[in-house]
Design the sequence.
């Protein structure tokens, strides 16, 4: 891994000194803490680091005008971040010439990759990025319970939510300038941090990621109340894959899952 | 007091609403437990509508529109079908199961089908019992 990090630092320094990018988004590691770090000069590239605990999804910064204003930029990208970049690209949120990835993962450093080359790198080294087995087991365990038990489980979890929206801030997929939860004419989702408002927020947040979630886990990692948000995300990803073969973030241009359709879609639940 | 289910139905203007109208003009009687909300198309039915119905007191939600291929807007019902197929599973995962959310295609010519559908759905919800005022999705005053 240290060789990979050296190569990543060298590439970041090269891009900055050549002026190919104005900013590099990466991580720095201090003890048990992982911070995002923004590098604008080649000499600072030594500060960049990476390990498996870097779970914050840097692609979430790409919607911020102050970051976008400094394009072209490079992003230190784990496989999950690479997928987020491709989702953003397929949704026309970033342009190919604006963003480059310094692709790095458990199998080593992939080099400076344009968005067009990310798909090939992912498919070669990380072709089946599915939720971890332990998470899928928890989803299966909960799914096997009765509806009342599930309702009780989620009631206990959702009641903890303080509606800080850290999950939304951490998610690269949540880039709406005005989120539905902030609209109040009419107000669809109660903004009080209790009861039905929490339920609606959690369900709608998860559903808005249907066929788009790359499973990076940044939302759950950001939640100060420790809600098991990845249970919802993993369940949706699993359903979307099993029913529609959805694997978001592997193609530069992909049709959105919700927003496209096929005459062959399953209709057996419709009377 | 016996439990009378309250069912909110979201139906499309062109098929199911016309079908429901035909049920009435054909003088077919059916369970009076349904409250119809007419929308232009099933594609217009946002998942938030369903949550709002449960929030405000519905025991179940019925969603009905044109048969595949018959959509007035060509593909609204196809879009809806894909969306619902995932959303109903997410609802079930959070505790609102298939006894609470129903889907159907009813065309403008199927007055009898609409009457049968409402009767069947009402029976199923009656058997499942009230939604539960303590459910997290319900607004508590």
Sequence:
């Amino acid at each position: 891994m240290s060789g990979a990090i050296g190569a990543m630092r060298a590439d970041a320094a090269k891009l900055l000194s050549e002026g190919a990018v104005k900013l590099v988004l990466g991580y720095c590691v201090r003890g048990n803490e992982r911070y995002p770090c923004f590098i604008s000069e080649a000499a600072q590239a030594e500060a960049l680091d990476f390990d498996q605990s870097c779970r914050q999804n840097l692609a979430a910064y790409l919607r911020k005008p102050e970051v976008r204003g400094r394009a072209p930029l490079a992003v230190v990208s784990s496989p999950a971040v690479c997928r987020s970049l491709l989702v953003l690209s397929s949704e026309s949120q970033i342009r190919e010439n604006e963003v480059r990835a310094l692709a790095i993962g458990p199998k080593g450093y992939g080099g400076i990759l344009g968005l067009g080359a990310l798909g090939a790198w992912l498919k070669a080294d990380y072709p089946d990025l599915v939720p971890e087995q332990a998470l899928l087991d928890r989803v299966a365990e909960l799914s096997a319970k009765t509806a009342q038990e599930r309702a009780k489980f989620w009631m206990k979890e959702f009641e903890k939510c303080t509606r800080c929206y850290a999950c939304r801030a951490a998610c690269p997929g949540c880039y709406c300038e005005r989120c539905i939860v902030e609209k109040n004419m009419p107000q669809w989702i109660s903004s009080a941090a209790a009861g039905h408002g929490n339920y609606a927020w959690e369900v709608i947040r998860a559903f808005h990621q249907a066929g788009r979630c790359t499973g990076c886990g940044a939302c759950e990692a950001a939640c100060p109340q420790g809600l098991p948000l990845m249970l919802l995300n993993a369940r949706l990803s699993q359903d979307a894959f099993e029913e529609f073969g959805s694997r978001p973030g592997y193609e530069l241009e992909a049709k959105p899952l919700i927003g496209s359709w096929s005459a062959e879609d399953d209709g057996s639940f419709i009377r | 007091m016996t439990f009378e289910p309250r069912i909110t139905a979201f139906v499309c203007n062109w098929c199911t609403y016309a079908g429901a109208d035909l049920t009435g003009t054909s003088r077919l009687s059916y369970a009076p437990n349904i409250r119809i909300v007419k929308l232009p198309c099933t594609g217009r039915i946002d998942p938030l509508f369903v949550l709002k119905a449960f929030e405000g007191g519905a025991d179940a939600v019925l969603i009905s529109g044109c048969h595949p291929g018959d959509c007035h807007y060509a593909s609204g019902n196809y879009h809806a079908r894909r969306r619902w197929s995932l959303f109903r599973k997410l609802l079930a995962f959070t505790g609102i199961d298939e006894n609470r959310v129903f889907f159907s295609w009813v065309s403008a010519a199927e007055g009898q089908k609409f009457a049968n559908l409402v009767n069947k759905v009402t029976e199923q919800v009656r058997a499942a019992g009230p939604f539960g005022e303590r459910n997290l999705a319900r607004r508590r005053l």
Observations:
- Residues 133-244 of chain A form one domain.
- The two ends of chain A are 55 Å apart (CA to CA).
